[in-house]
Design goal:
The complex is a heterodimer. By secondary structure, chain A is mostly helical. Among the domains of chain A are: 85 residues, NADH-ubiquinone/plastoquinone oxidoreductase chain 6, subunit NuoJ (Four Helix Bundle (Hemerythrin (Met), subunit A)); 58 residues, no CATH class. Chain A is built from 10 helices and no strands. In chain A, helix 2 runs antiparallel to helix 3 and helix 6 crosses helix 7. The radius of gyration of chain A is 31 Å and the shape is elongated. Chain B is mainly alpha-helical. Among the domains of chain B are: 274 residues, no CATH class; 42 residues. In chain B, a hairpin with a 2-residue loop joins strand 1 and strand 2. The termini of chain B are far apart. At the A-B interface, helix 2, helix 3, helix 5, helix 6 and helix 8 of A face helix 1, helix 4, helix 5 and helix 6 of B.
């Protein structure tokens, strides 16, 4: 090839290329979904760096900005929000889908190799001239808002429709007005129950925990002070094991240490 | 190329004079000079961080009427150094549940990404560095400002992954909050910068600084400046927007489980991010390394040249730092839903409207809406722009008039005062009477109702 990359670009490629491959393999083989997302983010960043190295700074920065900064970040957000685990996806719902997938992948690979292998490229022009004379951004914007304005606007309309559709499908109309903090407070006062809020879980001299109920003045535990989720899961512990050491401490203070 | 050229004639171009590429000239900058500049920026940021931690604690101390750190070194200046040494020698605890690799990766991402953005900040004019004439700026590209936003987007990973990898509830909530908060505020931040791009016709920082030689963009793009200042507090997780680490609600947020050097990296990242957003604000709105208006006129712009720029840039940077500290000293933390509502329902739509307005003004400057102009104080304003400003002013006047009427009506209603006789048990809970009110005897009905409410505890739910 007449326009093989120069020294710096070749070094960059041979360092970052394998890293990008490792990232994409991580996406496929990682056990945890978050590790897969990290691998994908790495690959996207490296692709952006390659674009920048090939005289396309706008494309490269937008690649990093949009894919790494927004799209994969949203993946991560959803993964963290709903807590997807590796334990989740091991049941095959479709029988024989692995074999079918493997066959389809092989077919697609053969198709791509035969199609791309027979392509004849004209001599590459390069971006150096365009970057110099109208400038990278100006040339790009002239194409986007000039020759391809219809394709661009149609694509944006499609994306907006998709976003609106997702919102319409996911949105549930609330029946009646929801209560805010003020309303809840008014309601507590009007009913006269738990005016100062519910009691907090147990706080002891050397320990505090959400799973330990607080003690009422007469020494009985208050079931109101622990979350109902923990009660339902049967994870509430008795405060007895914290009460006894506390009595010992009190005894030590009064009588002096006997250790 | 020929199709491009014909297209360029067909479409009226906003950027007629090819301002895409940087103004700064790096032709006389060998690689080793660039490496020296890297070291300069690194040292500049590290020293600034050490000073700003001391500065913050001292200034907040003054605001809260206490001395602040004053033991180590003169004026307590070495306090941050002592704290840094302490975190290096502290035991670095990793929870048993943590994801080992990501738990270490997250602080590294934060601590490395924060340095990258400063490479495009013009912190001075053209200087003589070891016999080479070179601008005091590591590099510049046609998309330099977008680079800052992209790097900020990658930097968020540090916080989010820290929250996830800790394997604990509060960090996870902190990480979720941080990602939602920073992504939402990055949208408003990017939109606010669009007005500057429209005025300067470029995204290269040296071009933007060059375009502010006559007028800093804080004046024509004042609303953008306002939005940017709000979003830069949101982006850096500083009070009053430090919801990702709200210690009253979620212990410490994403770095709850971190200690020692790994925590110090987050700390460093947070402070250098403050310098980055402040540096970008300086570059975009306050003329970067240009001297303030009066001084820049002295001796044919002598104070705009060379190393003087570093002084002006640093002064402007520290004005923003003081503002950060001032905000922290005076404002309480906002509630999370109010914060998100403010970002999505006010900042983003308002900034979109503002960008449309600025685009209109720029079009009028290019003479697309008629060529008439009015000259005021040596500047020519297009008639179309003045017309729009007049319409907005009239609308604001009408809105203010209507608003005043509502406020007056509300005050008139409030001035009627409380009733003369009050039933202290009317709301079910005893309330003392206001001055001048007489107390009605507690009604029997209310007493019955309150005794009817079950005194027995019910399980929450």
């Amino acid at each position: 090839m007449s326009n093989a990359p120069g020294g710096g670009e070749a070094v960059l490629f041979w360092i970052l290329g394998p890293l990008a491959v490792i990232g994409s393999l991580g996406l496929v083989f990682a056990k945890k979904a978050v590790h897969a997302a990290i691998g994908m983010a790495l690959t996207m960043i490296i692709l952006g760096v390659f674009y920048i190295a090939q005289d396309a700074p706008f494309l490269g920065i937008i690649q990093i900005f949009v894919y790494t900064g927004a799209v994969i970040m949203l993946f991560l957000f959803v993964l963290m929000l709903i807590g997807v685990d590796s334990a989740d996806g091991f049941v095959e719902t479709l029988k024989g889908q692995r074999i079918a997938t493997a066959l389809l992948v092989l077919g697609l690979g053969a198709l791509l190799v035969s199609a791309i292998g027979s392509v004849v490229y004209p001599a590459p022009v390069g971006l150096a001239d365009v970057n110099q004379s109208p400038g990278n951004l100006s040339a790009m914007s002239e194409l986007i808002f000039g020759r391809y304005v219809w394709a661009f606007e149609v694509a944006s309309a499609l994306l907006i429709t998709a976003a609106l559709g997702a919102m319409v499908l996911a949105h549930r109309e609330r029946l009646g007005k929801g209560r805010n903090q003020k309303d809840w407070s008014r309601r507590r006062f009007a009913r006269g129950e738990h005016v100062a809020g519910l009691p907090v879980p147990g706080v002891y001299a050397r320990h505090n925990a959400v799973d330990t109920p607080a003690l009422l003045p007469d020494g009985t535990p208050s079931p109101l002070s622990v979350s109902r989720v923990l009660t339902a899961r049967d994870q509430v512990t008795t405060p007895q094991r914290y009460v006894e050491p506390e009595l010992e401490i009190r005894h030590e203070i009064e009588e002096g240490s006997n250790r | 190329m020929s199709t491009l050229a014909t297209l360029a004639h067909g479409i009226p171009t906003l950027v007629a004079d090819g301002k895409d590429n940087p103004l700064a000239d790096f032709s006389d900058t060998p690689v080793w000079v660039s490496l020296i500049k890297v070291v300069i920026i690194f040292v500049y940021l590290l020293i600034s961080t050490l000073i700003v931690i001391w500065f913050e604690r001292r200034v907040i101390g003054r605001m809260q009427q206490r001395p602040g750190p004053n033991r180590n070194g003169p004026f307590g200046l070495l306090q941050s150094l002592a704290d840094g040494m302490k975190s290096m020698l502290k035991e670095d605890v990793r929870p048993a549940n943590a994801d080992k690799f990501v738990f270490t990766l997250a602080p590294l991402i934060t601590a490395t990404m924060c340095f990258v953005s400063f490479s495009i900040m013009p912190i001075g004019g053209v200087v003589n560095l070891f016999g080479h004439r070179t601008p005091l700026q590591l590099t510049d590209t046609p998309v330099a400002v977008l680079l800052v936003l992209a790097v900020a987007g990658v930097g968020i990973y540090g916080i989010v992954l820290a929250g996830w990898s800790s394997g604990s509830t509060y960090p996870l909530i902190g990480g979720l909050r941080a990602s939602a908060q920073m992504i939402s505020y990055e949208i408003a931040m990017g939109l606010s910068l669009v007005a500057v791009f429209l005025y300067s016709g470029s995204m290269s920082t040296s071009q933007i600084v060059g375009a502010q030689a006559n007028l800093w963009f804080i004046i024509p793009a004042f609303f953008s400046f306002f939005v940017y200042v709000v979003t830069m507090v949101g982006e850096t997780n500083r009070l009053p927007f430090d919801l990702a680490e709200g210690e009253g609600e979620i212990v410490g947020g994403y770095f709850t489980e971190y200690s020692g050097m790994r925590f110090a990296m987050f700390f460093l990242g947070e402070y250098i991010n403050m310098f980055t957003v402040a540096g970008l604000a300086t570059t975009m709105f306050l003329g970067g390394p240009l001297a303030p208006p009066g001084i820049s006129a002295i001796n044919n712009g002598m104070f705009n040249e060379g190393w003087w720029g570093l002084l002006w840039f640093t002064i402007k940077l520290w004005l923003f730092m003081f503002m950060f500290v001032w905000l922290r000293g005076s404002l309480p933390r906002v509630r999370y839903d109010q914060f998100m509502k403010f970002g999505w329902k006010f900042l983003i739509p308002a900034t979109l409207g503002w960008v449309v307005l600025v685009a209109f003004f720029r079009g009028a400057q290019n003479g697309w809406f008629g060529t008439g102009g009015v000259t005021i104080l040596g500047r020519t304003f297009p008639v179309a722009s003045l017309f729009i400003v007049g319409v907005i002013a009239v609308a604001a006047l009408l809105l203010g008039w209507w608003w005043d009427g509502r406020v007056e009506a509300r005050e008139a209603r409030a001035a009627q005062g409380p009733p003369a006789i009050v039933d202290p048990f009317a709301g079910g809970h005893p309330v003392p009477p206001l001055p001048g009110q007489t107390v009605q005897e507690p009604s029997y009905a209310a007493a019955v109702e309150s005794s009817a409410a079950s005194p027995k505890e019910t399980v929450r739910g």
